[in-house]
Amino acid sequence: MGCCFVLVDENREAVLLDTGLVGEPRFIRRLVARLGLEPRAIKAILLTHGHLDHAGNVAWAKAWTGAPVHAHPLEQAHLNGAYPYTGINRWCGRLERAGRRVFGVGAPVGIDVALADGQELPFWGGLRVVHLPGHTLGHCGFYSDRHDLLFSGDLFASYFFNVHLPPPILNSAPHLIPASLEKARRLNPRLIVPQHYDLLDGGLHRRRFDGLLHKLAERARRRGRVVI
Fold it and tell me: Where do the DSSP E strands lie in the chain?
């Protein structure tokens, strides 16, 4: 239900990017073992944001690896299960409360390292924090200059049948999304990997992102057109 990545560098040290919701602990344990790593090889847990499908297992991951949690400070309320959802976004809060009850995930956990836009992290050959608010106030992507790759979090979802922005009920600050889309466009990464996708193909998702921007621009032009 949620996506996460284990990024391993040439020194056999790793970071966990998001922690998922259902089934990910077993997946992460199996993947780490398959890579020939011990849990302590994971040196950091990086969160794109605090929604339950991305951070539901962060308390488990921190206990299993001993790694510090890195996230934007505006995500702490989400990690506490105490974010004050308003308007249509209240449905997101209701879904998360149901998820905590049904799946037994989402135990509160503190942020050990507060992230800021432009911050350079010494993981996976270097990762730059890219603050992309809108989905949540502290939503962040992570950019690898070495690979010219942006992990874009929930900036958009990329499936062959539907490339789209997150549904309105899930966006805490939708007025900030256009600027975040433009920020990602200006960064101009060769590869983009969102957290919700069908195929692990950064070039494909970059092309789909460009297509989504074109579709959104056309929609805006049509809405701004005066018809007499």
Answer: 5-8, 14-17, 42-46, 69-71, 113-114, 120-121, 127-131, 140-144, 149-153, 157-159, 162-164, 191-194
**CATH code of 201's domain:** 3.60.15.10
> How do residues 149-200 score in pLDDT, each as one tens digit?
999 999 999 999 999 999 999 999 999 999 999 999 999 999 999 999 999 9
Q: How confident is the model at residue 227 (pLDDT cuts 50, 70, 90)?
A: very low
**Comparing C-alpha atoms, which of 220, 219, 202, 210 is closest to residue 184?**
210
Alpha carbons 75 and 80: distance in angstroms, whole number: 9
Cα 123 to Cα 144: distance, rounded to the nearest angstrom: 9
Q: How many domains does the chain have?
A: 1
In which domain, by residue range, is 204 found?
A: 5-224
pTM attached to this predicted model: 0.95
